[in-house]
Amino acid sequence: MLACLSTGCGTDDSAPDTADVDASRASEVSAVGAAAHPLFEDGLERFSKGDFAGAIIQFRNVIQLEPTNPTARIEIGRALNAAGDPASAEHELREAIRFEAHPNVVSEPLGVALLHQSKFADLDRLVRDTGGRSPTVEASMQLLLANAYVQQGDRQRALEALDRARKLDPRNIEPLVKRADIAFASGDNDAAKEAIRIAEAIDPESAQVWAFKGRLSIRDGDYELALENYERASALDRDLTSARAGYARALVMLGRVEDA
C-alpha cells in the first residue's frame, strides 16, 4: 500500500476491516502535502472507478506540486499499467525508486510494467533483487516471473516459480489458479482439478476458482454444472468477464442459443 512508501509494508495477510481501510486511506493521503490532498484523493477515487485517464491527470497534478514525491509516482505507474501504457508506467516507477520509494511497494507494479513489455531479463533481475520486500510481495514477484516463463514457453520454470510463490505465501490462491491454467492448457485435467481443489479449500468464495470450475465442467461435457459454477462466480464478482463469457458458452452448448 501507499502508506508504506517510506518505511515498507507489514506482512500481515489478513483482510482489513472497514476501520483499517479508512485508516489506510487517510495514511495514503498523508503522504502528500496539504495542497495536493484533494488532487490525490480524487486520483485514488477515479482509479477505483476505472477512470484511469482521469486518475493519471490528477496524479500528474500532484507531481507538479511535489516533483520528488514517490507516492504519486507509484500511483501514476499503477494507473498507466491499467491504461495499457507499461512503458510510461516503467518510467514513472523508476522515478519513484530514484525518489526512495520502498521496494515493498514499487516492485510489483514495476514488474507488471516489465512483463507487459516482454522485458523478461529486466523482470528476472528485479525478482532476484529481493532486498526490503515482504514474503507476500516476494510471492507476487514469483507469480509475475511464472507468467513471464509461460510467455516464453518454459512450462517447467513457470511451475518452479509457482512453487516458490506458494511457499512464500501459502494462503495466496493465485499461484494455484495459474498452475491449474498451465495444466489445463496442456490437457492435464487431473492436475488442473487438483490445483483448483486446493485453491477452493483455501478460499471457497473466490470467483476465480468458481469460474475455473466452470471451464473444467465444460471440458468434461457437464454443461449444466458449468452453468452453476459460472453463476456462482458471477454472484461473487459481477465484473468477472470470464464468468459471463463461460456462462454464455455453456448455454450455447446446451442448445439454448436464445438465452446466451
Q: Could you characterize what this model shows?
A:
It is a single chain. By secondary structure, the protein is mostly helical. Helix content is 71%, strand content 0%. It has 14 helices and no strands. Helix 11 packs antiparallel against helix 12. The longest helix has 17 residues.
User: Residue-averaged pLDDT, rounded?
Assistant: 88
What value does the Rg take, in angstroms?
A: 20 Å
Major pleated sheet: none
Structural class: mainly alpha
Low-confidence stretches: 1-27
Distance, first to last CA: 40 Å
Helix proportion = over 70%
Using DSSP, what is the number of strands? 0
Number of helices: 14
Quick one: overall form? globular
Q: SSE string, helix = H, strand = E?
A: HHHHHHHHHHHHHH
Could you tell me the strand content as a percent range? Answer: under 5%
Architecture blueprint of SSEs:
Elements: H1 18-29, H2 37-48, H3 52-65, H4 70-82, H5 86-98, H6 103-116, H7 120-128, H8 135-151, H9 155-168, H10 174-185, H11 189-202, H12 207-220, H13 223-236, H14 241-253
Helix pairs in contact: 2-3, 3-4, 4-5, 4-6, 5-6, 6-7, 6-8, 7-8, 8-9, 9-10, 10-11, 10-12, 11-12, 12-13, 12-14, 13-14
Which descriptors apply to this entry?
single chain; 260 residues; mainly alpha; 14 helices
Please provide a brief summary of the model.
The chain is mainly α. The protein is built from 14 helices and no strands. Helix 6 runs parallel beside helix 8.
